[in-house]
Every structure is written in C-alpha cells, then in structure tokens.
Amino acid sequence: MDKMPKWADIVLIPLISLLLAAFFSALVILAIGENPIEALKLMIDGALMRSAGWGYTLYYATNFIFTGLAVSVAFHARLFNIGGEGQAMLGGLGVALVCLYIPWPHWSLSILGASLGAALFGALWALIPAYLQAKRGSHIVITTIMFNFIAAALLNYVLVEMLRPVGAMDPASAKFPDATHLPSFQDMFSTAESPMFRGAPANVTFFLALIACFVVWALIWRTRLGYEIRAFGQSETAAKYAGISPVRITVIAMLISGALAGMMSVNTTMGESERLILNSTEGAGFIGIAVALMGRNHPFGVLLAAILFGFLYQGGAELALWTSIPRELIVVIQALVILFTGALDNMVRHPLEKLFIALRRRNA
Fold first, then answer.
1. How many Å is the Cα radius of gyration of the chain?
2. Is 26 a domain residue?
3. How many whole angstroms separate alpha carbon 34 and alpha carbon 19?
4. Distant-in-sequence, close-in-space partners of 273: CB < 8 Å, separation ≥ 6
5. In this predicted model, what pLDDT tens digit does every residue of 186-195 receive, in sequence order?
6. Is 101 among the domain residues?
C-alpha cells in the first residue's frame, strides 16, 4: 500500500516545497532591505496583471515547456540529460538552415519544416552521448554537459564564419524571410479597439508546446515504447529479463529528449529573433531540469512548472526595473525552488508520509 495518496505526491509535496522556497526567498529580500510583500505584488502586476506581462511570461514558459519535457522523457528512462542547452543551440541551427535556404510560401508550412529541422539537429546532438552511455558506459551527465560547451563553440564558428552576412559585425545570421515570420500573440489577439500583448514576444509556438505536452503524455503512458522506457527506468534488470534492450531504449529516449530540447529554438530563433543569434537559449536548458523536477516528470506538471518559472523570469525583470533588487535574486529564488523540489524533497515527503500513515491507522 502506498504511504500517501497519489494526489499528495503530485500536488501537495510540490506546493509545500514551493511555499518553503517562497518563505526563504522572502527572508533574502528582507536581508537586502526590501519589502517582500511589495516585491511579490510588483512581480504579480508585471507578469500577470497585464496582457504584455502575460506575453513575456508565456514566451519564457514556452521555452521551459520544451526543455522540461526533454528532461522528463530522459528521466523516465533513468537518464539525466543536462545537455538541453547545447541541444537547443543546435536546434536553432536547424531552424536557421530550414528558414534561410528553403523558399517557404507561408509561415504555417515553415513552422513545420523548422520544427522538423530543430528536432533533427537536437536529436543528433544527443545521439553521441546516448551511444557513449549505451555502448561504452560513459556517464550521460558528463558527456551531455561537455557537449553544451562544444555546441556553443560550434555555433559561434558557424555564425561567424558561415552564416554571418557580408559586412555585418554581429555574430548572427541574416534575417529570415517574411514568409517564415510567426504570428505573435499581438497579431493574433489584438484589435484596433482593444490592443493586447503589445511588444511581447509570445507567439504561436506556445500552442506547439501544448501539443508537445499531449504527445509526450500519449507516448509515455499510452504506447508500448513509453511502457518500455518507464520499465527500463524502474529496473534495468527486470527490463532486460522482459526482453527490452537497454541500448535501444537509452538511444531512443535520448533522441526524443534531444529533439524536444531542440524544438525550443523554434520559439527563440524563429518566433522571437527571426534570425539565429548567440546565447538565444539563455539558460533554458538548465531551467528545464527544475521544471521537470517540480512537475514530477508529467507533462501537465511540466506545463504548470514552466508557467511558474516564466512568471519568475518576467517578475524578476520587473523587480530589477522598478526596485533596487537585482535580477540575480531570481536566480537565487530558482535555486531555492530547485533545492526544495529536488534535493530536499525527502524533507517534505517523510513527514507527510508519517502523517498519512497515522491518519490511516486512526481511521482503520
């Protein structure tokens, strides 16, 4: 019998962990001489109370949905993919090549091609670490984090030496053709009488991220491959006894993970920048780890956690703009969320388990 109800594991533990992170964040804000209540009000107002704020929050959330899903798929196979940052960088290269060298007639077709290019390049960048883990025993954490640095160097070389327009100074590609420009939320939802999302980078890629959530849910919990991934993650010995190939599952899970991370670049490269630039990932690959942990590796949980971190990103920008609180404080808050939802998970879990066991015995 489970020590606690499933809803408690999915909802109550992350909620308590989040409240603990908020409490200690408030202490940090107090320590630097600011009012945490006023800071929270400012974050809510800037990130949630106006359509432009929502536009930025959902833009960041889109990135975190893709990277969170990437980490969660790998987690289900007991693989810790820390290479989402590099896979997203190479995914951006796939987006750029598709947009620059294929004459697309309309954005609705170009987004399909760009998604395929991003997924392909992201998956290929995850293939070598997957092979080294499956066949050579190289630890996936070490290889994927090393490949982040290789991806950054490779992208820098390609931009400076190959894709940079003649006479340009910035290490960036040429602007993508107009036919590949994705509709922003401002284009989609504004009217002359009621302008919305003004200046916000949120775009149609957000709906692509929602589709990705559904596809990952269907894959992991409604397909034979998903069952094999979960079985392998629960027990490699039992999976091998059932005829599941560890090499095959390791490679396939990492390919899917890399493809999802690569698709993040559709949002940043095609949707926001409309060209390939350096540092477009802005750490989203690493934030995906926290998003997956907080979302309990479930697509719906990943969606909610991604929106939360999108709120933190946008709210942090508002704090830095209107108060003396540095934006780096948001990194501290993110670290506290990661600490309590990941490393200190048992600090919350064990007391709750004892509480539910006591309640069950009392009611028996």
1. 21
2. no
3. 19
4. 172, 280
5. 999 988 888 8
6. yes
